């Protein structure tokens, strides 16, 4: 069995849940999403420093046992009101691709080419980060070069 297919399967069964009201707790989130399948893990993100330390960040990740369960939960829960706010529910791989596309429009597209969608932690791979930094530096050099050409000597 190809290990990449396992990673893809795992990332496709992981949901990003955003626009969470600060009153929603971890247990409330699990109760809202458990009717749609077996929840393998849940990552509720908190501020770790600064004046908001210990407060929820307003988003979380839920890992289901299968991608079918994740897709069902996405269909049923996206846009549903929770504490007066519409939930944003996406497959975590979709969220990652959207961020990579947004970053690549600034950095030349290397983030997507480097395979960020295969990451299971929801973060860019090291090589993708390096490629994005190189593209950013290249773009800055090009801007600096064109600004120098515009100034009369």
TrEMBL record:
Name under which the protein is recorded: Probable RNA-binding protein 18
Q: Which organism is it from?
A: Herrania umbratica
InterPro entries tied to this protein: Nucleotide-bd_a/b_plait_sf, RBD_domain_sf, RBM18_RRM, RRM_dom
Pfam families in the cross-refs = RRM_1 (PF00076)
| Annotated keywords | RNA-binding
According to the entry, every stretch annotated as the RRM domain falls at 13-94
Record keyword RNA-binding present: yes
CDD domains, per database record: RRM_RBM18 (cd12355)
GO function terms (MF aspect) = RNA binding
Q: Where is the composition biased (Polar residues)?
A: 116-126
Region Disordered, residue ranges:
100-128
Instruction: Tell me yes or no: is Acetylation among this UniProt entry's keywords.
Output: no
The protein's matches in PROSITE patterns, at most eight in alphabetical order, are given as:
RRM
């Amino acid at each position: 069995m190809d290990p990449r297919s396992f990673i893809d399967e795992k990332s496709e069964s992981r949901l990003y849940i955003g626009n969470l009201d600060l009153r929603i707790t971890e247990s409330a989130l699990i109760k809202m999403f458990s009717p749609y399948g077996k929840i393998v893990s849940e990552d509720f993100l908190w501020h770790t420093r600064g004046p908001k330390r210990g407060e929820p960040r307003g988003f979380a990740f839920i890992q289901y046992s299968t991608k079918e369960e994740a897709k069902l939960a996405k269909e049923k829960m996206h846009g549903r009101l929770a504490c007066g706010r519409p939930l944003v529910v996406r497959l975590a791989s979709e969220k990652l691709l959207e961020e990579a596309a947004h970053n690549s429009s600034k950095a030349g597209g290397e983030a997507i080419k480097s395979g960020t969608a295969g990451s299971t932690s929801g973060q860019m791979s090291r090589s993708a980060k390096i490629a994005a930094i190189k593209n950013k530096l290249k773009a800055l050099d090009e801007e600096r070069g064109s600004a120098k050409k515009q100034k009369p000597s």
